[in-house]
Amino acid sequence: MSAYSALTTAGYRAQVRDKTTVFFTFAFPLIFLVVFGLVFRGRSVEESGFSYLSYTAAGVLSWGVANAAVFGIGFTLMQWRSDDILRMIRLSPAPLTAVIGSRYVLALGVGLVQSVLFIGVAMLPGFDLVPDSRWPLLIPVMILGITTFLLLGVIIGSIADTPESVAGIANFLMLPMAFLSGSFFPLDAMPDWLQKVSMVLPLRYLNDAVSAALTGRGDLTDIGWGSLGLVVFAVVFGAVAARTFRWTKSS
């Protein structure tokens, strides 16, 4: 517990010390919300009758939280390995679970603040998001989503050795996934074959579950299937992360 607490405290201090990263972590999803809110204001998706905001708000929130989880752990593991911090931790009594667990707590905290801030802005006049009565289910859904994408970030941070490679791999995965999973564009308006492709992407399941819980665009079945999909991807990513994790550049 002492190692876990020390790593969590050190990680928190390092995170809040980087003001630029903190700003863009929380501002980036809000920028997309404002842009989409202005562009699609008052418009609805003909196939469903729901407003574009019900799609974009939930989708952008999902993408923002997932993106923060991936980049947060990915850059940290790469940097700690490059600076030999992971090697020193390995020589200490601290287990690997303390390393990942400390970052997990920080990722949950960031995701919570992101969600509260984002939903608060989306409820302002001009955006007029009205959370569905099932909004409390958003909490376990977000925890599952952060868990899944944090494990994806562990994989990226384990195979990448430079900041450029972390950014390149993460963006290569997260940006196309955002478009193909319906974060920025309603899946209902996409061709059937693209909707089928999205079924193999973890962000699709997070989007579906968040949309059903936050805006009511779906029912409890959508939340259940979305959560189950995230659990499956978390298990797969966890297994891969355990095989690819490196304490040093060579092992």
TrEMBL record:
PROSITE patterns: ABC_TM2 (PS51012)
Transmembrane region(s): 21-40, 60-80, 101-125, 137-159, 166-185, 223-242
Coiled coil: none
Bilayer disposition of the protein: Multi-pass membrane protein
Subcellular location: Cell membrane; Membrane
Keywords for this protein: Antibiotic resistance, Cell membrane, Membrane, Transmembrane, Transmembrane helix, Transport
Family: Belongs to the ABC-2 integral membrane protein family.
Record lineage: Bacteria, Bacillati, Actinomycetota, Actinomycetes, Kitasatosporales
Name this protein carries in UniProt: Transport permease protein
Annotated ABC transmembrane type-2 domain residues: 20-248
